[in-house]
Specification:
Layout: H1 3-19, H2 21-41, E1 49-55, H3 60-70, E2 75-80, H4 84-93, E3 98-102, H5 106-111, E4 116-123, H6 127-151, E5 163-170, H7 177-198, H8 201-208, H9 211-215, H10 221-249, H11 259-284, H12 287-305, H13 317-323, H14 327-341, H15 345-369
Parallel strand pairs: 1-2, 1-3, 4-5
Antiparallel strand pairs: 3-4
Amino acid sequence: MNLKRVRAIANKEYIQIIRDPRSLALGLLIPVILIVLFGYALSLDIKDVPLAIWDQDNTKASVDFILNFKNSEYFRIIGYYDNYRNLERLLNYGRTMMVLVLPKDFSRYLYSNQSVPVQLILDGSDSNTATIALGYAQSVVQQYNDKLFRKSSQTNLVNSQPISLDQRVWFNQDFESKNFIVPGLIAIIMMIIAALLTSLTVAREWERGTMEQLISTPVRSSELIIGKFLPYFAIGMIDLVISVILGRFVFFVPLRGSLIQLFIMSALFLTGALSLGIFISTVAKSQLMASQMAILTSFLPTFLLSGFTYEIFNMPQAVQAVTYLIPARYFIKILRGIYLKDIGMFELWPEATCLMVFSVLMSRLAIHKFKKKIL
């Protein structure tokens, strides 16, 4: 081994890195970003589970029981309600994961040494999180029962289980994880196909030297972008069809909502994702850089910060604020709402509006950034 030649090659590579500040920045930032995301955004511990309460008794006994949930680090009471219609709306909108309903005769049952039936309604869309949250709720109730049983030596109470938890799981009664994963995977698949493939389309033209030929033709910038957009849009919709068929007939995931609405929302999300890929391609000018930028700006945020893998409410506040910039966050909520809850545009219009803004913004940026001139 000739050490002089090794040193010469090392010097050349060093100069290449210095002359390409974008690659240098990616090489330095990617490890930092991944460490921050995995270190702070992801956690297997579930805390601050949103909890809605309907206390039909409104006595000191019922308030004391609710305080056990309020004082627990695992639950966050979002409000008190007085009818099932509002509670159902909260579950459909995804604003709460758990609903606790105390009966009208809570205190009477308790003081007469009878078991009190307390209803617990759980959103089972995310089976893993729901299972953990259910265990926390059962633990809180059991601790309350143990506390009352210890006081029974000073009273006439002999019932060791004064509170009986009547639990009911909505949307995913059997806690099937595939019902939660498959709808989210559609967003992951469409983002990968859209961003990664289209991020190479313009950069490939520059690398092969064919972009000069396209620039010399009368075709406009917008026409060129749209012409490159359409084939990938067709591929993305075909992938959607394949995903829906596999989810329904291979994994037997129920599709309770409208298939037409599913395709319309998917087309809206796909438009924005494809435009993002084309925008990246016009900025990068090289396929390697384009693929790295696509992974960093599309795939990783979609996988980690969209609510696909871990619940957003379990992330730190700073990371939760960042998730509002991730379009897949809104698309995954739409997918799970259509698949598992059979909810329509009346409930999903905020998420649909965010996707529309994303699609229009990225389309405008992609067309504006591409210039018919040699730089």
